[in-house]
Structure formats: structure tokens, C-alpha cells
Design brief:
Strand content of chain A: under 5%
Largest sheet of chain A: none
Order of helices and strands of chain B: HHEHEHEHEHEHEHH
Oligomer: heterodimer
Order of helices and strands of chain A: HHHHHH
Structural class of chain A: mainly alpha
Shape of chain A: extended
Helix content of chain B: 55-70%
Radius of gyration of chain B: 20 Å
Structural class of chain B: alpha/beta
Largest interface: A-B, 66 and 80 residues
Number of helices of chain B: 9
């Protein structure tokens, strides 16, 4: 897997693709836009295959080095099995669907459950790590948002469920807009740096 | 035709070039204090000295998605971290949850090694795919984050709530994290030692001395932000006044 995206070819391709896509968007050239996006999807699909190969190689290397060997063997076996079954029967067949519904979904659901506990712990850790005004405000509003979004001991108290929820939503949406404006400006700046060839997060 | 969009972008580029020229003529501007970036530089240099690993988590969003900009910032950061730390005993490791990101991360790391004249030390396994859905990616990255040789975890990309799994696993090392996603930012604010809020993630290049254009674009971002603040405040006041008087 040796890839050498060398300057200036990779930079020229990146800038050209970006400029064409931008112009297609500005001048509503939907044909060119969908052509470019279709190519991007083909490239992304090929890259996904290489990514899967990388995942396998990382764990083969771990098995060789003896690091958490059991987990890595389980991953390689599952990867080969799922890949072969899906390749043979197609993704819409019962068997790959069964694997998805009975292995992938429950594992992700349990990770989501772990995440809920991790989030609660994170709130407690925040007060321990940075016991300042902003952290206290953050935790207070997180608790108030929780109280306002579920019935309290089975009772639906209107002031808590509607009044408090509206108040929190008002503050949260104002703050969220501010943050999203900053994120949008940052995204535009990053995109333009790449279009100008000033930022090359590849070997160009 | 979205001509307004083109005009706005043209102004953005003009301001960037203007600040680039001005910065060349005078001394570099003083950037506001963001503790996360100071610690980032220290921790990467420290990892070179004590022979530990810096883990750069790039997230699991595709670069063809609208979240690409955050992933690009992560890649720029990875390149800079490698320029500083590639000379150490242990190379910084990158994890990503999409094929394109893994390829770009490998290329970014390889270029840093090539620039240092140490291409022979490079391995494709320095950038690892750990899973291809947000949870699968986080579960895979948790193993590296909790490794006793990992001294720092830099989360720079598009993360949702799954970021908490990585930051919780990284209890031993320092965690610095930023995301373009609101949920991800809230989670990282609570669980990362040094969170990057809002547009701070996009300032990474300027603070990590990735190049003069990064500083110029940061200054442009400030100008645009203030212009928007004035526009929003002005239109709100105008709306209020016109409702009261007209």
C-alpha cells in the first residue's frame, strides 16, 4: 500500500477538483456537480476497501507482536467471515442482515449504554478537574435540561416540563447559533486555504 | 446563480491575502491565549523526550461529507505533530474511521518523515483504521487511548457523543479535543482536560506555527465574525426600532 501524492500533481488535482465543484455550485451546474460527486464516491469506496485492509493488517501485526492477541484474532476471524458472507450472498441477503442485526447492532447498543454512564461520570469529573463558574453553569444546565425533558417521578409538572424546557431551549439555541457561526467561518477558511494550495494536509 | 456566495468568498480570499502581506511587513500578530495549544506543543515535545506515543484521533466522517473541514484541520495538525515528534523513539499514531482519512493520514505522516530524511522509519501502520462507524471507530481508538505508552490524545476532527468513550479511556494521558459537532463539543468540554470550543479547532494551524497563511486566515475569520456580529445586532435593533416606531 504505497501511495505517493507528490507535489505539484496532488495539489493541482485537489485545487482543480475544489474549484470546479465550487463553480458548479455557484453557477448551478448540477450535471458537473453530480459527475464530480459520483467520482468522489467511487474514490471513497475504493479507499474504504484499503481502510478495511489496513484494519486487518493492524490486527495481524498485533497478533504477531502478541498484544491483546485474543481480541485481534476475534476481529480478524469476524472480518473475514462477514466480508466473505457479504461478498458471496450480497448485502441484502438474510445472512449478512442477521449478522448486522444480531452482532453489530447489539454491540453498538451496549457501547451507547457505556457512553451514557461515561457522560454522567464526565460531568462529575468536570467539577473535580475544573471547579470554576463555567463548569458549574454547564453542569447546572445539563441537570436542568434532563429534569425538563422527562417526567419527574412519573408526574408531569407543567412549569418544569414546558416553562423550563422553553427557557433552556432559548438559551441553548442562541449559544448553539453562535458556536455554529464560528464553526462555519472556520470551515470556509479551511476550505479556501486548501483551494489556494496554502494548506496541504497531504504530501503536496 | 449564487453570485453573493462568490462575492463573499472573493472578499474572504482578499482579506486573507491582505493580512498575509501585512504580516510579512510587520511583526507577527499576538494571538489570544488558548491553553490547549500551549499544552499541545509541550506535550508533543515531552513525548519525544520521554519516548511515549502521541495519539491523534481524526474521527470517522468521510472527507466527502460536510464535516470534511474539521477532518482537514485534524490532518494539518497530524502533519505538524509529526514534524515535531517523528524524530522520537515512538512515532505519533493516528486513528481514523474512514478509508479516505486513513489514506490521507498515511500520506501526511509519510511526508513528515520524508522531510526529516527518515523515510525508512515510516510504516503504514502509523495511521490505523479502527472501525467504520462512529461507535466502532471509538471502540477501536479506545484501545490506543488507554495504552500505558500513550502520553497524549489529540482529538481533532468531527466527533459526536462517541468522543466521550475515547476521552474516558484516556485517563492516564492528557486529552485535548475539538470537534465541529455541538454534541461532540459539549462532551469534550466536560471530559477533555483541554477542550477546544467553537472555532478554536480551526485556529490550530496558526497556533502550531503551520504557516503564515494559517495566521492570515485566522485574522480574516475575526474580521468576518465581527462583521456578522454587527450585521446581526444591527438587524435586530432595526427590527425592534421599526416595530416600535413604524
Amino acid at each position: 500500500m504505497k501511495f505517493n501524492l507528490k507535489f505539484p500533481l496532488s495539489t493541482i488535482i485537489a485545487i482543480l477538483a475544489g474549484v470546479i465543484l465550487l463553480l458548479a455550485m455557484v453557477f448551478n451546474l448540477s450535471g458537473i456537480r453530480s459527475f464530480m460527486l459520483n467520482w468522489a464516491m467511487v474514490v471513497a469506496a475504493a479507499a474504504l476497501l484499503l481502510g478495511v485492509a489496513n484494519l486487518g493488517l493492524v490486527h495481524v501485526d498485533k497478533v504477531r507482536k502478541g498484544e491483546n492477541r485474543l481480541y485481534s484474532i476475534a476481529l480478524i476471524v469476524s472480518l473475514v467471515l462477514t466480508f466473505s458472507v457479504t461478498l458471496w450472498y450480497g448485502p441484502s441477503h438474510q445472512l449478512p442482515q442477521w449478522i448486522f442485526e444480531n452482532v453489530q447492532l447489539p454491540v453498538e447498543a451496549s457501547l451507547a449504554a457505556v457512553m451514557t454512564i461515561s457522560l454522567a461520570l464526565a460531568l462529575i469529573r468536570l467539577l473535580k478537574r475544573r471547579p470554576d463558574f463555567i463548569s458549574i453553569l454547564f453542569v447546572t444546565f445539563a441537570v436542568l435540561a434532563l429534569i425538563s425533558s422527562v417526567p419527574l417521578f412519573g408526574m408531569n409538572i407543567r412549569l418544569l416540563s414546558e416553562g423550563l424546557r422553553d427557557f433552556i431551549q432559548l438559551l441553548a439555541s442562541a449559544g448553539a447559533r453562535g458556536i455554529l457561526i464560528g464553526v462555519a467561518i472556520g470551515s470556509v477558511a479551511t476550505g479556501l486555504r486548501i483551494l489556494m494550495g496554502a494548506d496541504r494536509p497531504y504530501s503536496g | 446563480m449564487n453570485s453573493w456566495l462568490l462575492i463573499a468568498l472573493a472578499y474572504f480570499v482578499l482579506f486573507m491575502l491582505l493580512f498575509l502581506t501585512l504580516n510579512k511587513r510587520r511583526s507577527a500578530p499576538i494571538l489570544r491565549h488558548i491553553p490547549a495549544f500551549e499544552h499541545m506543543q509541550q506535550v508533543v515535545e515531552g513525548a519525544v523526550e520521554d519516548g511515549t506515543i502521541v495519539h491523534v484521533a481524526l474521527g470517522s466522517r468521510e472527507i466527502t461529507s460536510p464535516q470534511a473541514a474539521a477532518a482537514m484541520v485534524g490532518l494539518s495538525l497530524l502533519q505538524r505533530v509529526n514534524q515535531i515528534a517523528a524524530a522520537g523513539d515512538h512515532a505519533p499514531l493516528a486513528t481514523a474511521g474512514s478509508g479516505t482519512l486513513v489514506l490521507l493520514a498515511q500520506d501526511s505522516i509519510r511526508s513528515a518523515y520524508r522531510a526529516l530524511g527518515q523515510s525508512a522509519r515510516y510504516s503504514n501502520l502509523f495511521a490505523q483504521a479502527t472501525g467504520f462507524s462512529p461507535y466502532a471507530y471509538a471502540a477501536g481508538a479506545m484501545a490506543l487511548a488507554s495504552d500505558e505508552n500513550t502520553s497524549a490524545n489529540l482529538l481533532a476532527g468531527s466527533f459526536g457523543a462517541e468522543a466521550v468513550l475515547i476521552s474516558t479511556a484516556a485517563e492516564k494521558g492528557l486529552t485535548i479535543g475539538g470537534s465541529d459537532n455541538l454534541t461532540g463539543q459539549a462532551v469534550l468540554f466536560a471530559d477533555a482536560e483541554e477542550p477546544l470550543i467553537g472555532e478554536e479547532l480551526y485556529a490550530a494551524g496558526a497556533y502550531m506555527q503551520a504557516g503564515p497563511m494559517h495566521t492570515a486566515s485566522l485574522q480574516t475569520q475575526d474580521v468576518v465574525r465581527w462583521a456578522l456580529v454587527l450585521l446581526i445586532t444591527g438587524s435586530a435593533i432595526w427590527g425592534l426600532v421599526s416595530e416600535l416606531l413604524l
